[in-house]
Amino acid sequence: MDWYIVRKFLGTFFFSIVLVLSIAVVFDLTEKMDDFFENQVPFKEILMDYYLPFLPYYMNMFSSLFIFISVIFFTSKLAGNSEIIAMHAAGMSYHRLMRPYAFSAMLLFILSIFLGGWVIPKSSARMLDFTDKYIDHFTSDHARNMQLEVEPGTVLYIESFQRRSQIGYRCSIEHFNGKSLVSRTTADRIYYDSLYNWHLDTYTQRVFTGMRESLTRGDTMNIILPITPDEMFITAQQAQQMTTPELRHYMERQRERGSGNVKAFEVEYHKRWASPVGAFIMTLLGVTMSSRKVRGGMGKNLGIGIVLTAGYILFSTVSTTFSVNNVMSSFSAAWLPNFVFLAISIPLYIRASH
What we know:
By secondary structure, this protein is α+β, with helices and mostly antiparallel strands. The protein has two domains: 2-136 and 261-352, no CATH class; 142-231, no CATH class. 62% of the residues lie in helices and 19% in strands. It has ten helices and six strands. It has helices spanning 2-38, 43-61, 63-80, 83-89, 94-134, 229-232, 244-257, 263-290, 297-324, 330-352, and strands at residues 142-151, 154-162, 167-177, 180-192, 197-209, 212-224. It has a six-stranded antiparallel beta sheet. Helix 8 (263-290) packs antiparallel against helix 9.
């Protein structure tokens, strides 16, 4: 009986994914057809660099939706055919009935963690590069007024920097000992060599010792700064291209540097754990809503399920926006929808089990 429910659960889940994503691909292709023709994109690139990563990316993103709809669909069918009544009559309690559901949710939880943390970031890099190249250009080759702590006690400021040439203009490098300024170096131009090697042109260096100051000027200076030009141009969209360990390491480095663009990365990190946990909550909610035969049958349950999942996705999107705008913490934005729907599920489960 357990394997019967597991097969029903997973079979319905993957069938709904194939069905919904097929429709999504058709709509997306219709919307972007003009961009493909206008930019003369090769068919192979469309298939391999966009739609092949497209499928697992959106499958994982809306996995909670697919799980909820799948559970309601096949559990309502079991209840409508009086199969659940037969299980109870054979001595299976409501809590015992939940075991195969929990097992299936655990499998999907592990799959979601693995896909979202390691597989999808690598494949979505191709999709985002494709989008940036042919559809929506979101990367920039020029940055202005960058200030960040490249290592503890060292603050770098560059007024203007070109990514392609790896050259910046009007920069300053300040070294602190606690809150005391130890030295300040300014230069008309800074450019990157390799392996954290930077070069300053037409520089002025001031070193402060107590109340005394020494001044040095020169044409060129070599300096080691633990930062590369690519790190200066990482955007929020690129958080999706990082594996979970890379994302955690990047956030730690950016916090040490005093960077202000960490919020979107924090939300992405917490959502990689919150979304898979949603598999358990949506499974619990789906079973409690559809395990009893009711008037209206499957259609009524599916209607209520679609409304609730739409609310879950809307809630998650709104909370993410609030977090990026510093209205709430990243942890709250990612986990609040789960907490709210868990609070809804527990009373319904207690009621259904009696």
